[in-house]
Amino acid sequence: MDWSNYMDISLSLAEEALEVGEVPVGCIFVDNDSNIIASGRNTVNKTKNATRHAEINCVDNIIKAGILEKLSNVTVVVTVEPCIMCAAMLIKIGCTNIIYGCANDRFGGCGTVLAVPGLENCKIQGGLFADQAMHLLKQFYKGQNPNAPESKVKKKTIAP
């Protein structure tokens, strides 16, 4: 199956996140009939809750819609490799297919940093539109995150 159109949607969600000052990650959940059953983007800065990743927000949307039975065998299409927390959650809900854009070199839970136990039962495909996903991340990280804690704010130094 060609997942390009689905990744385009996830990239649009990531762009929305970037526009409102969030780390640009977008995600959709697709059922076995190729229907999008949930979409989400990062809302960590808005909520001041570090767990509000795009994948978690998708699950919340499914819970709100009352369609929990659709979670098993779902395909996740996300712009950045799920972090360890999200990868573990996706395995627990019965995800069978994860398609991501760029690798997550700091927190990747699909093999880049850690292969979360249970992933052997999940088909994983990375690299779909990786350049576009990485470009969005670079746009975010070249700026200053106004919501970053003081201890994490980038300090500008001037050489003597």
What is this structure, in a nutshell?
The chain is of the alpha/beta class and 160 residues long.
Verbal overview:
By secondary structure, the protein is an alpha/beta fold. It has a single domain (3-142), classed as Cytidine Deaminase, domain 2, CATH 3.40.140.10. Helix content is 34%, strand content 17%. It has five helices and five strands. The chain has helices at 4-19, 44-47, 54-65, 84-93, 130-142, and strands at 26-30, 36-41, 75-80, 97-102, 123-126. Strands 2-1-3-4-5 form a five-stranded mixed beta sheet. Helix 1 (4-19) runs parallel beside helix 5 (130-142). The radius of gyration is 16 Å and the shape is globular. The mean pLDDT is 92.
How many discrete structural domains?
A: 1
Sheet with most strands: strand arrangement? 2-1-3-4-5
Report the count of strand segments: 5
CATH topology, anyone?
Cytidine Deaminase, domain 2
CATH C-level category: Alpha Beta
What proportion strand?
Answer: 15-25%
Number of helices: 5
What is the CATH superfamily? Cytidine Deaminase, domain 2
* Cα-to-Cα separation, first versus last residue: 57 Å
Mean pLDDT: 92
Shape: globular
Instruction: From the alpha carbons, calculate the radius of gyration and give it in angstroms.
Output: 16 Å
Largest β-sheet summary: 5 strands, mixed
Look at the helices and sheets and give the structural class: alpha/beta
Task: State the order of secondary-structure elements, H for helix, E for strand.
Answer: HEEHHEHEEH
What percent of the residues sit in helical stretches (DSSP H or I)?
25-40%
Shape-level CATH architecture? 3-Layer(aba) Sandwich
Poorly predicted segments: none
